[in-house]
Amino acid sequence: MSKFSTTSNRQLNTRSSDIDALAQRGYNIGHKIGEGSYATVITAGYADDAGHGVHLACKIIDKAKAPSDFVHKFFPRELEILTKIDHPNIIQIHSILQRGPKIFIFMRYAENGDLLSHIKKSGPVEELQAKAWFMQMAKALKYLHSHDIAHRDLKCENILLSKRLNIKLADFGFARYCCDDSGREIKSETYCGSAAYAAPEVVCGRPYDPKLADAWSLGVILFIMLNAKMPFDDSNLSKLLDDQRNKKFAFRRKLQDHISAQAKATVAVLLEPEPHARWNLREILNCSWLRADEEEPLA
């Protein structure tokens, strides 16, 4: 069995009865690694009847503390999407349990943390590695889009790194379907995610194509990997929108000569302020930067 210490109830706000009930199902609770307004993320362990253990993370959501639109709209949609998706570059859900108002979402643990922490610690990502990680992100996002699912909260904090340093997309709290029951595409109207990663059509508050908004966010992440800084300052939303629309982003002088023209061009077609001119994931996966070492285009 994996070894995890059980922390105090006060620290995790998890009742002993919850801990005991989880233990009976083979789960033990570790330490807190993240916290939001009505959700806490902790480490956890699981062992099956044969004693085989696995290292997990657990997102605990307290519906009693959450607003109504989350409980009745966003969270049910997140659960439905989580149970339907399966891709090597999307965090794998182990199980979902409920006790009273609390939902316990157990998922595979990403041993190397999130991409933002990695960049803060190590600086810009070398282009070859950035290309490999970007390819994994793009494939995961294309998989979602092919199932008419948009993530709507792509940011470096939601890109996790596994033990073998592979990308795992996480946090589907704002994810939604892009088509109705008849297959008709639906525009999004909800302002989702972080302004620093949000496309200009999202920032200005007009209905938007969530798949193309995801593509913009992917461009922001690629820029951050290569540049170790944000492309736009989000401290003033009016200025942010003006800078986005006028493509006022630039690579740091000491780095720009070390970044290939193809990588810069890939950033540019994603940070395109006009959604109809922005590249989608199929086009991105067939771009010259990613296809340089391969022969056949991706369908």
UniProtKB/TrEMBL annotation:
<keyword id="KW-0808">Transferase</keyword>
<keyword id="KW-0067">ATP-binding</keyword>
<dbReference type="InterPro" id="IPR008271">
    <property type="entry name" value="Ser/Thr_kinase_AS"/>
</dbReference>
<dbReference type="InterPro" id="IPR011009">
    <property type="entry name" value="Kinase-like_dom_sf"/>
</dbReference>
<keyword id="KW-0723">Serine/threonine-protein kinase</keyword>
<keyword id="KW-0221">Differentiation</keyword>
<dbReference type="GO" id="GO:0000287">
    <property type="term" value="F:magnesium ion binding"/>
</dbReference>
<feature type="binding site">
    <location>
        <position position="59"/>
    </location>
    <ligand>
        <name>ATP</name>
    </ligand>
</feature>
<dbReference type="GO" id="GO:0050321">
    <property type="term" value="F:tau-protein kinase activity"/>
</dbReference>
<dbReference type="InterPro" id="IPR017441">
    <property type="entry name" value="Protein_kinase_ATP_BS"/>
</dbReference>
<protein>
    <submittedName>
        <fullName>Testis-specific serine/threonine-protein kinase 1</fullName>
    </submittedName>
</protein>
<keyword id="KW-0460">Magnesium</keyword>
<keyword id="KW-0418">Kinase</keyword>
<dbReference type="InterPro" id="IPR000719">
    <property type="entry name" value="Prot_kinase_dom"/>
</dbReference>
<dbReference type="GO" id="GO:0005524">
    <property type="term" value="F:ATP binding"/>
</dbReference>
<keyword id="KW-0597">Phosphoprotein</keyword>
<dbReference type="GO" id="GO:0007283">
    <property type="term" value="P:spermatogenesis"/>
</dbReference>
<keyword id="KW-0832">Ubl conjugation</keyword>
<dbReference type="Pfam" id="PF00069">
    <property type="entry name" value="Pkinase"/>
</dbReference>
<dbReference type="GO" id="GO:0005737">
    <property type="term" value="C:cytoplasm"/>
</dbReference>
<comment type="similarity">
    <text>Belongs to the protein kinase superfamily.</text>
</comment>
<dbReference type="GO" id="GO:0000226">
    <property type="term" value="P:microtubule cytoskeleton organization"/>
</dbReference>
<keyword id="KW-0479">Metal-binding</keyword>
<dbReference type="GO" id="GO:0030154">
    <property type="term" value="P:cell differentiation"/>
</dbReference>
<keyword id="KW-0547">Nucleotide-binding</keyword>
<dbReference type="GO" id="GO:0035556">
    <property type="term" value="P:intracellular signal transduction"/>
</dbReference>
<keyword id="KW-0217">Developmental protein</keyword>
<keyword id="KW-0744">Spermatogenesis</keyword>
<feature type="domain" description="Protein kinase">
    <location>
        <begin position="27"/>
        <end position="290"/>
    </location>
</feature>
